[in-house]
Each structure stands twice: as structure tokens, then as C-alpha cells.
Task: structure prediction
Amino acid sequence: MIKFLNDIRKTENPISNNGKIINTIAVLFLGIALGTFSKYLDFRQAELPRVLMAIDEALDIHNFLGRFAIWALIALCISIYSNSAIRASVNVFAFFVGMVASYYLYSNYIAGFFPRSYAMIWFGFPAVSPLLAFVCWYARGKSKLALMLSALILAVLFNMCFVYGFGYFSARSVLEVIVFIIGFIVLKRNSLRSSALMGTTSIVLAFLLNIIIPFHFG
Result:
């Protein structure tokens, strides 16, 4: 395992302890803000200003925020741009704790209901996020192993953003298409050839994952 990580690791960027604390607090509050906004948009949809209501109706934002792709992308970005794998784990965990806690506290105490079975799925995200973030941090390395890791991450994101099967293919929404494009940009390699290889490999892996694990967390 150590050899594997050494093969694909990228250079850690030094940061002061104060900087680490500030970064973690920042992503925690980002999670709180986005979780609160997501539930507010869902619960107060009929009371939104006309402009926001029109945008929500056109793009289906409240349902988009209720699916997994956007949260996976945000967590990926936090992981990739953290200064070390350990910091990626801490920061992503803080983000999901803030997001999930604020969403369901709003749901329970303001909206007046608590969907327990659905909440259990989301509570699983903070639990597994440190390990996943730790691994994702290495995806921007320069080795072939890092390229394969990037392709696998992109494959999972692909299956969150698109639905397909024999004879049909569709994006969940235009916002999910944008999520996938941003994910590709975040994970892109240093050369066009390597980026194309990553993208092609990710689609192949996505189809294989679709056969093995047909549940896409959409």
C-alpha cells in the first residue's frame, strides 16, 4: 500500500497550522450554507421570488441538489485542492458534516419532518468520506496508476450524471452535464493525449460499473 501511494502521490504543499484550521472552518461553513440553502429551496419553493422560481423551474435546481453528483463534485474539488491527503480527509469530512447536519436540522426543526430512511443514506457520506477523500487526493499524480484512479473517479461521476442502457442514453439534467464537464477539467492530465485516454477509459469503466453496480446514486 505504501509503495502504491508513493508511486502516485503528488507533492504536498506546506501550510501553517492556522491555515489548516481556517481552511477546515471554511469548508465546514460552506457545507452548512449549501445544506441550508438546499433544504430552503426544497421547502420554500412556492415562496421563492419570481426570478428564482423561474430559474428553479427551468433548471430543476432543487431536485438537482437532492441528487448526489453535485456533492460528489464539490467533495472531489475539496480533495484535489487540499494540500495533503490527510488534509483532504479532514476537509471533506468537515464539509459533509456541515452539509448533512444543516440539511436535516432544517428539515426537522423548521420544515417539521425528518425522513429517517432517506437520511440514513446521507449520514453514510460523512462516515465514508475521509477514506474516499484520502484516495481521491492522489488522482492528480503523474503516474499511470494516478491516471487509472482519475478514470475510475470520473466513471463513478459519469454514472451519477447519465442514465443509459440498451438503446437509450440520457443526461439527468443539463446541470449534471456541467458537473461531469467540470469533473473532467478538474481531473485532466498534463497532455491532451493523456486526458483523452483518461476520458475514454472512464467511459469503459462506467459501463462495467453499470453492469456490476446498477445503482448510480442519482
